[in-house]
């Protein structure tokens, strides 16, 4: 139990350090970045890129699988958050006196849904497109910015983000294996 408490304390200290690097002129930028609605144009671009690489029929199948992987990610995150019940930094009395509260959130923190879903989509997209596009790895800018926004806004601890990334990787891997076996190899 001491190891877990030490890890949690380190996680809090790391968040406080990262959050302290924020500056008021950047607040609106990170609030913009953290809003999932502003990322919708990216998904239309990804559909277009998939269409150019695979044609319309396969691009539709890829889009459906991507949406299913995102929905599955959200379900898993919801289950984990309600099982673990870790308070968000902005709601945690042990740290919220030391941070600037820029947003409100009332659900739990572990694991980060933003991190999990965005890394699920990014890994899945990367594996699908890497043979067709030299710069497919640029897709990782999306989840990195998205996840960092959650730290900047003190909506999550670093471990929430890290485990969200790992969970997103795992979910994307499973969906990619199914998609590759039944639809992409043809």
Tell me about this structure.
The protein is built from seven helices and no strands. The chain is globular and about 55 Å long. The model has no long low-confidence stretch (mean pLDDT 91). It has one domain (54-184). It has helices at residues 2-20, 24-34, 40-54, 56-84, 113-129, 141-152, 158-184. The longest helix is centred in the middle third of the chain and has 29 residues, at 56-84. By secondary structure, the chain is mainly α.
Topology of helices and strands:
Layout: H1 2-20, H2 24-34, H3 40-54, H4 56-84, H5 113-129, H6 141-152, H7 158-184
Helix pairs in contact: 2-6, 3-4, 4-5, 4-7, 5-6, 5-7
Q: Nearest-angstrom radius of gyration?
A: 18 Å
Beta content comes to under 5%
The number of strands is 0
Coarse structural class: mainly alpha
- Uncertain spans, ≥5 residues at pLDDT below 50? none
The helix/strand series, from N terminus to C terminus, equals: HHHHHHH
* Shape field: globular
Largest sheet: none
Integer tally of domains: 1
| First and last CA, distance | 51 Å
Q: Give the helix level as a range of percent.
A: 55-70%
Average pLDDT over all residues: 91
In a few lines, what is going on in this structure?
This protein is an all-alpha fold and 186 residues long.
Q: Which keywords apply here?
A:
single chain, 7 helices, 0% strand, 186 residues
């Amino acid at each position: 139990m001491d190891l877990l408490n030490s890890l949690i304390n380190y996680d809090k200290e790391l968040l406080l350090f990262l959050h302290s690097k924020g500056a008021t002129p950047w607040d609106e930028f990170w609030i913009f970045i953290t809003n999932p609605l502003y990322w919708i144009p990216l998904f239309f671009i990804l559909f277009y890129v998939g269409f150019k690489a695979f044609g319309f029929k396969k691009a539709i199948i890829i889009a459906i699988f991507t949406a299913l992987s995102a929905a599955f990610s959200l379900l898993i995150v919801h289950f984990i958050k309600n099982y673990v019940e870790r308070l968000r930094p902005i709601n945690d009395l042990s740290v919220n006196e030391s941070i600037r509260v820029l947003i409100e959130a009332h659900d739990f923190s572990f694991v980060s849904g933003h991190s999990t879903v965005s890394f699920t989509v990014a890994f899945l997209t990367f594996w699908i497109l890497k043979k067709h596009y030299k710069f497919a790895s640029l897709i990782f800018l999306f989840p990195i910015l998205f996840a960092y926004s959650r730290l900047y806004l003190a909506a999550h601890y670093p471990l929430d983000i890290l485990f969200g990334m790992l969970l997103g990787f795992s979910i994307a891997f499973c969906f990619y294996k199914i998609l590759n076996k039944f639809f992409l190899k043809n």
